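Protocol step 4 of 5: obtain the predicted structure for the target chain.
Materials: sequence only (see below). No template structures provided, no constraints applied. The aim of this step is simply to have a reference model before the mutagenesis design in step 5. Sequence pasted as it appears in the construct record:
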Amino acid sequence: MNASEANFDGIVGPTHNYGGLSEGNLASTRNEGQASSPRQAALEGFAKMKSLADRGLIQGVMPPQERPFLPQLRAMGFTGSDSEVLQSAAREAPRFLKLVSSSSHMWAANAAMVSPSADTADGRVHFTPANLLTTPHRGIEGPQTQRALSRIFADESRFAVHDTLPMQPMFADEGAANHVRLCEAHGDAGVELLVWGREGLGAYEGRFPARQTLESCEAIVRRHGLSARRTVLAQQARQAIEAGAFHNDVVCVGTRQALFYHEQAFEQTARVQDAVRDAADGLFDPVFVEVPASAVSLNDAITSYLFNSQLLEIPGEDRLVLLAPEETRENAATRAYCEALIASNGPIGAVEFADVRQSMRNGGGPACLRLRVVLTDAEHAAVLPSCLMSDELYARLCQWAETHYRDRLDPADLADPQLMTEAHTALDALTGILGLGGDFYAFQRV
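Step 4 output (structure tokens):
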């Protein structure tokens, strides 16, 4: 069956800031407290989306979440008008205010685990929104992510949007940032590779938290009706986590037959390779592109975000294209490796670079910004069309961001009630642009 891999990118929110909230994310910690530019961040994201749509890829958008999220502050005991709640939190618990003001939802790779209809028992595309419970600022995202997915993929005969997994440490789930699908062609049955960092029932001690549990991956397999024979559960290398690879997509990316990863991405790499080969038997021959630590150190891989790139099948291109952040080109080791990569006869024939610096400063590269969804032609036709990138939508989104977003946001601005008003006005306008309905956000339902 004919199918394509679509990318649904998260739209940066109007409160995009550098809060330093993500333990284990070195860029997030390093840039804490710096001034941000929500407008520039949004425009960078739109430019990346438009460039891929112009090259024939299916490109969609995921709406930002409501921030600051006052229902969370009210649940913490803050009372009064919206402005009073905001200012009380700023005065009494400024860290809580940062938690509910984060624009981390922009990284749609963490929005959900997605399994295409070719792999699932009931022949539908399955989504499980990530609970993201390891970090408090992200643990509030799940219900609104589910609401967004249910609006964009509303046809229940073709799409199944589940609840998040239980909000318990055993089922910590960070979404598609720990998932790779390999296949001969996107419409064929494939192999789903789910990567975990710790066992939920066991003790884990480390410099940084291991965010994905084995139990959450096992639950996704059951929920989505995946074939045990065609599924691989692989352990992320503790060494990678300790070095700052907080998600597997910081050290690994794959599509079609190709798995592109760092030598130190997995525990027992040879076993992972064997498991993928066994799962792919009779379907396709997997191609492993392993980057040796002697060529690119783990530190260089993480700081440059070489692997947090989009590995794309571009119409008209004979080989895959790696869309990497500009930081990959600026790092001498990764630049040299990319030059050698495209000169080889491997599956990756070109490396291109995207400027997403506002996202990178908070620890998210091109791959973080997108959720991959494999769609058949019929499923593509069933997606909410107003959320699919076009010349018209691109122009409207750019004008919307220019109108409603601040060019500069300092940490102290999060306490400004006017920023909250601006955010509500922006999101209210966006629901009209994207056709999401006038009850999409909590503030619209009051």
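Step 4 remarks: The mean pLDDT is 95. DSSP finds 16 helices and 15 strands in the chain.
Proceed to step 5.
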